[in-house]
Amino acid sequence: MPKSKRHKGLLKRIRVTKTGKIRHRSAYHKHLSSHKSGKRLRQLRRDTIVSNPEAKRFEKLLFRRLRGRTQPRSAVQASPSPEQRREMQAAKAAEQSSE
């Protein structure tokens, strides 16, 4: 059976965040901006996050599960801050030196 390939056109248009959400560029921002208000242009400048039904469709195109799509944000484990990482390494070093 042939290998499943990811949709290359979709891969070029999106970025998957660490929490598994999908970011993409807003439509209506490239040209004809002279009649659009400044507020509207500022809001279009931000990357938007795909809704859950669309993320489900993207999972099929990308052949991968997207973390965080159905999980609450609190369930996704955050990376430790540099200070926390230093404390963990110091504790681990102290533990190894005591042995």
Could you explain the architecture of this structure?
This protein has 99 residues and is mainly alpha-helical. The protein has a single domain, classed as Factor Xa Inhibitor (Irregular). The protein has four helices and three strands. It has a three-stranded antiparallel sheet with strand order 1-2-3. A hairpin with a 5-residue loop joins β1 and β2 (22-24). It starts with 7 loop residues before the first helix and ends with a helix. The model has no long low-confidence stretch (mean pLDDT 85).
Question: Brief description of this entry?
Answer:
The protein is mainly α and 99 residues long. The chain is 42% helix and 8% strand.
Give the class from helix and strand content and strand pairing: mainly alpha
Q: Strands of the biggest beta sheet: in what spatial order? A: 1-2-3
CATH arch. level architecture:
Irregular
Give start-end ranges of low-pLDDT stretches: none
**How many domain units?**
1
According to CATH, what is the class? Few Secondary Structures
Between the first and last Cα atoms, what is the distance in angstroms? 53 Å
Under CATH, the topology is which? Factor Xa Inhibitor
- Beta-strand content estimate: 5-15%
Element-level helix/strand string: HEEHEHH
SS element count, helices? 4
Number of strands: 3
Q: Mean pLDDT across all residues, rounded?
A: 85
Helical residue percent band? 40-55%
Shape descriptor reads flat
Rg, nearest Å? 21 Å
The profile of the biggest β sheet is: 3 strands, antiparallel
